[in-house]
Amino acid sequence: MAATTRRRGQSSPLQAHIENGALVYSFPNKAAIAADDSVDVFLDDHLVGTADVDADKLVAQVSLKQFPPAEFPARLRGLLRSTNTELPTTVVESFADLLKSVATPEVKARISEVEQQSLTIAAEIADFPEYPREFVLIVNGLQVGAGTSELPTYVGRPTSLTHKIRFSLPVLLRDGDLVAVIDPVSSRTILTVAITWMNLVGPVLNALETLRGEHQKATEELDQFRSRLDSFTNITSESAIFDRLDLYYHLLSERLDRALRLVYERTGSEAPETVPAPADGIRQIQPPQLEGIGFYQVEAGEGGEWRWFGPRVTLLFREVPSSASSVRLSFDRMAPGVEPEKIRATIDGIEVAAAVRSGAEGDCEIALPIDRRAWRPDATVIVQLVFASAHVPQSDSRAVTAVFTGAELV
Fold first, then answer.
1. What is the reported pTM?
2. Which of 48, 156, 327, 353 has the greatest CB tally within 10 Å of its CB?
3. Burial (CB count within 10 angstroms: exposed 0-12, middle 13-18, buried 19+), residue 179
4. Pick the CATH number of 107-199 from 2.60.40, 3.40.50, 3.30.479, 2.40.10
5. CA–CA distance, 12 with 153 (Å, rounded to integer)
6. Statement: residue 266 has pLDDT above 50
7. What is the layout of strands, in order, in the sheet containing 118-125?
8. Which CATH architecture has domain 238-409?
9. Tens of pLDDT along 68-99?
């Protein structure tokens, strides 16, 4: 470290040096200072510290323990407050030089984590805590690694910080191994400890805790996936899976039938004989007999049985009477925010206008005309409903729209 003096353009015998973590100014005589004088030390425009001048010893010791983060070499500028006189400019070449000025740097260290391939030390640093430090790891008297400390997030000017130093281990630690951590700048040993079985069990417990957390996360994700799958397809049992597969097969056959009819019409070929339609009359379907996808399991109460509909519903009605001209769907109520007038409906792929009749108690009936152009040879009708919105209750993950209570083919 070098010191130069600038005092009103003239040289001065005043001396400055760093000792015990402080910048010490030595004045030649009492004439150089005023009564109750003090010294301010700056790093660029940052005030590093202030100290009163000891009139008897003719010295001022400005602590540098609150030295702000800086690039080295760093220039410290002193100012004598009484006369606003600049004092010697002191150059600190490196952080190592600054740290070496502290006779016994204060560091409290402990082992915070032991893993198979690493060792982590927590070091509480009081001297110049805002600077990362380099440390050396010694195991059984042999240097096995080095590490640079990581600083935690902090606000303001802390008086101490707990740094984390992580050392990579070339070999596994064993019970009884002697571990030491050394600060090479001050040549101080900040930690000496013997490894015990408690340290070695730590990684196993941490691994188990990690696995337990990952298992819990995977279980929650699986439950969420099952819930979404149930909301989409309403599959809640193995028998329901086969019912849905049967329905998908039926829908695929229906598309094939349409394509074949189109071929017969264009080629003039004779179409196969159709299945005779059931006798005239009204056919009623209750919630347990409802076939399709997009709705939930049957629920029951004092008012009877019902099913909640989802936002997209496909219904399959078999053995439709030849006299049937419409499908009437009855609902006990609509979910909050769902408007039945905004429902889009198709029958066998042809969009139809829905006639909505709302009751005084919130019940609703929707009538859908059956377009004879879409009449199927197997006497079935496929209805598709798309709701403009859906409601998700706080206590339920399902997206619901309406409470279905029955259907009629008339």
1. 0.43
2. 327
3. buried
4. 2.60.40
5. 44
6. yes
7. 107-114, 118-125, 161-168
8. Sandwich (2.60)
9. 888 889 999 999 888 888 888 889 888 888 88
Residue 133 φ then ψ, to 5°: -120, 155
Half-sphere exposure of 141 (CA within 13 A, CB side): 0
In sequence order, what are the residues at sequence separation of 6 or more whose Cβ sits closer than 8 angstroms to the Cβ of residue 156?
none
**Quick one: pLDDT at residue 147?**
93
Say how many residues make up the chain: 410
- Start-to-end C-alpha separation, the chain: 103
| Contact call for residues 399 and 336 (beta carbons, < 8 A) | no
Alpha-carbon torsion angle 20, 25, 27, 32, nearest 10:
-150
Q: What is the pLDDT of residues 201-222, one digit of tens each?
A: 666 666 677 777 787 888 788 7
φ, ψ for residue 60, nearest 5 deg: -135, 125
Contact 158, 65 (CB under 8 A): no
Query: Any idea where the domains of the chain sit in the sequence?
Result: 2-100, 107-199, 238-409
Please spell the DSSP secondary structure of 171-191, one letter per residue. Answer: S---TT-EEEEEETTTTEEEE
Taking the domain 2-100, which CATH number applies? 2.60.40
Q: pLDDT, tens digit, for every residue of 372-385?
A: 665 556 678 889 99
**Three-point CA angle 220, 221, 226, nearest 5°:** 95
| Residue of 232, 382, 258, 250 whose CA lies nearest to 310 | 232
